[in-house]
Specification:
CATH superfamily of the largest domain: Aspartate Aminotransferase, domain 1
CATH class of the largest domain: Alpha Beta
Number of helices: 7
Strand content: 5-15%
Oligomer: single chain
CATH architecture of the largest domain: Alpha-Beta Complex
Shape: elongated
Largest sheet: 3 strands, antiparallel
Distance between the termini: 41 Å
Structural class: mainly alpha
CATH topology of the largest domain: Aspartate Aminotransferase, domain 1
């Protein structure tokens, strides 16, 4: 009945905004509720929004960034962006396999991100650091108990096949620099083959 999202995901906006969708059923519950609240008073916020105001000082620069991101999403089309993410996810997974890397989830339910197992004996943080410092590629380490074991590549936002090929090439170099035997170009080739098959 309530869906909450963050600006830092597929909308390509820095963290700091939350999106809340509320069903009619949930609005009825909110209106009847007597629970004390201050920041999360949706009824108060709804009244202010109807007047074109907000309950608190908004992060204006993030709202402007969101407006630009939504213009881009409308221009490209939601379905095209979903298809782009699916293409990038498939290409990334093919590249990882070609490089001898295992996938954390053999059958991933989402095209938003691919989690890749670091080679045995290598802390995934070293791969993340190498990609970031040498190439400026932002890749995430694992979290919690998976920190140091996996790294994650996202596929959402203003990101296309050319970006993907560059990240895979950078990953190949990072792996070689960290002492792993990798056939340079094998991951890129696998990603390119997926691209050629999917974009024919």
């Amino acid at each position: 009945d309530i869906v909450i999202g963050g600006s830092q995901k597929a909308t390509m906006v820095p963290p700091g905004l939350a999106f809340v969708g509320v069903s009619d059923k949930a609005w009825k519950m909110i209106e009847k509720s007597k629970t004390p609240r201050y920041y999360f008073d949706f009824a108060k916020e709804r009244k202010n929004q109807a007047k074109g105001e907000s309950s608190f000082t908004p992060a204006t620069t993030l709202v402007v960034a969101l407006s630009a991101a939504l213009d881009y999403i409308r221009q490209v089309g939601r379905e095209n962006l979903i298809e782009n993410a699916a293409l990038l996810a498939e290409a990334t997974r093919a590249a990882a396999k070609a490089l001898g890397l295992g996938l954390f989830a053999a059958c991933s339910p989402s095209s938003a991100v691919t989690a890749i197992n670091a080679p045995q004996g290598t802390d995934s943080g070293l791969i993340v650091k190498e990609l970031r410092t040498r190439f400026g590629a932002i890749v995430s380490n694992g979290q919690g108990s998976m920190r140091g074991q996996i790294f994650r590549l996202a596929h959402l936002g203003y990101y296309d096949a050319l970006d993907q090929f560059a990240v895979v090439a950078a990953l190949e170099i990072a792996l070689v620099r960290l002492g792993h035997k990798v056939e340079l170009g094998s991951g890129v080739r696998a990603a390119e083959e997926v691209y050629l098959q999917r974009s024919a």
